[in-house]
Write a structure and sequence with these properties.
The chain is α+β, with helices and mostly antiparallel strands. The chain has one domain. It has two helices and four strands; from the N terminus they run αββαββ.
Amino acid sequence: MRKIEAKRGLDIECKGWEQEAVLRMLYNNLDPEVAERPEDLVVYGGIGKAARNWEAFEAIEDTLRSLEADETMLVQSGKPVAVFKTHE
């Protein structure tokens, strides 16, 4: 388990601000000040999870960091399953 904190500031981890925004929203949902049970990835309602498990969470993070501006990540059942070429 990791402690996730909402990111702030102008430094980004991703290749663009759109990808960074998704990553920051994910982190914000798991910030201990916001999440219901962040250690279990539960963000709301007792069962609503940000990812299937910690391995899937890290895969989502990695995919967001490498995602290009003309790509879209598909998340299904709490894990990333595909990246598609789209339009900027």
